[in-house]
Design brief:
With 172 residues, the chain is α+β, with helices and mostly antiparallel strands. It has a single domain, classed as START domain (Alpha-D-Glucose-1,6-Bisphosphate, Chain A, domain 4, 2-Layer Sandwich). The protein has four helices and eight strands. An eight-stranded antiparallel β-sheet has the order 1-2-8-7-6-5-4-3. α2 packs across α4. The N terminus is likely disordered.
Length: 172
């Protein structure tokens, strides 16, 4: 029975949002196990054309600039959350292929934004994806608790969407 419970917990999607100790932002953490190899997960995470399917509030994603060697790029993402204005973010990502993506906002509506995606190969060929982002809200008049709950819900949907896209990509 414990093995079943542990397996269920390991394969679930985890997300939390907590206040930033510095007080200017919140910290979003998420984790999901995906039954696809890191190479597939990596390719899906980097594919802007999949962003809308992974996170329904994403309106657009485009690469604005990139290094010739693929070690970094700059992307613009526009998100249209319900009941609030669109949010535009421009961020620079640095890549440690198949292992880690670090990112930091360079312009846009979100003033504080920095984090990472980490991919860990699992026994049996799967991948555990860890996500962390320290971000400020572009809507300072909204209550912090409401913003945190919305971010947590969005994180869960995005990680489930990532898993679904990866499984579809692995079948193709």
């Amino acid at each position: 029975m414990w093995a079943v419970l542990i397996l269920a917990l390991a394969s679930s999607v985890y997300a939390e949002v907590s206040p930033d100790p510095g007080g200017t932002a919140g910290v979003v953490r998420g984790r999901v196990d995906i039954e696809a190899p890191p190479a597939v997960v990596w390719k899906v995470i980097l594919d802007c054309s999949r962003a809308r399917r992974m996170a329904p509030n994403v309106q657009s994603c485009k690469v604005l600039d990139r290094a010739g060697d693929g070690s970094w790029d700059v992307r613009e993402m526009v998100v249209a959350p319900p009941l609030v204005p669109k949010v535009r973010s421009v961020f620079r990502s640095s890549y440690d292929p198949l292992k880690r993506i670090t990112f930091k906002c360079t312009s846009g509506d979100v003033k504080v934004c920095e984090g990472e995606w980490r991919l860990v190969a699992l026994p049996g060929g799967g991948t555990r994806v860890h996500y962390t982002n320290r971000a400020s809200s572009p809507f300072p008049s909204l209550p912090n608790a409401l913003t945190r709950e919305a971010l947590k819900s969005d994180m869960i949907r995005a990680l489930k969407g990532l898993r679904k896209e990866c499984l579809n990509a692995a079948k193709a």
